[in-house]
Design goal:
With 196 residues, the chain is an alpha+beta fold. It has one domain: 2-Layer Sandwich (Alpha-Beta Plaits). The chain is built from 4 helices and 9 strands. The strands form 3 sheets. A 4-stranded antiparallel β-sheet has the order 4-8-1-9. Strands 2-7-6 form a 3-stranded antiparallel β-sheet. The radius of gyration is 19 Å and the shape is elongated.
């Protein structure tokens, strides 16, 4: 197993939309509810520090493999897609180093039922972290078919064409794009090696 520790910088803002079911207060109108609860859309630890869920990056790189559908040399029509889908893991939360109280608010006019193209629209508030955010993401490469060069190419393309978070570029948005500044490589035997 190889471990790729990717040093990543956001070149676009990053937003989150974690589901929450915070109850409304008595006679609270929708705008006041949004004002009171929008930070509940953040993924935070027990100390209120914001993190990116590991599946955001795992799914990001799996999506780019499907999007690019690059053929494996010497394997006929076979592509890397299934190898990225099942052969790469990100297992731990990715800390952003920002407290939820320091996150900006971003008001957006969105479909009331969450379905693109629906008729009725309402104002919702989402958390916003400006571009320039930095993270260190440890990827476990469990599939030997994925070489270092192949992984690096896919991750760089994922940062430009897929992104992470709400309103990311893959979902017709402009947020969540990132660049890969550097990748540190090491060999490991199991997931515990990530902490080393």
């Amino acid at each position: 197993m190889k471990i790729a520790i990717a040093h990543i910088t956001g070149v676009a803002p990053y937003s989150q939309s974690r589901f929450h079911d915070t109850p409304k207060l008595n006679k609270e109108n929708p705008k006041n509810y949004e004002l009171r609860t929008w930070r509940e859309r953040l993924h935070t630890d027990k100390d209120g520090m914001v993190f990116i869920p590991p599946l955001a990056f795992k799914n990001c790189i799996a999506e780019i493999a499907k999007y690019l559908s690059i053929k494996i040399e010497g394997k006929g029509q076979a592509t890397y897609t299934k190898h990225f889908e099942s052969g790469i893991l990100v297992v731990d939360d990715i800390p952003l180093g920002i407290h939820k109280d320091d996150v900006l608010e971003n008001w957006v006019h969105v479909p009331a039922n969450g379905v693109r193209g629906a008729g009725k629209r309402v104002m919702k508030c989402y958390p916003l972290i400006p571009s320039g955010w930095t993270v260190k993401v440890p990827f476990l490469l469990l599939d030997d078919v994925i070489t270092q060069d192949v992984f690096e190419y896919h991750l760089k393309q994922a940062g430009q064409l897929i992104g992470v978070g709400t309103f990311r570029v893959r979902n017709l948005g402009t947020f969540g794009r990132f660049r890969v500044d550097n990748i540190d490589w090491k060999l490991g035997t199991d997931a515990e090696d990530l902490a080393a």
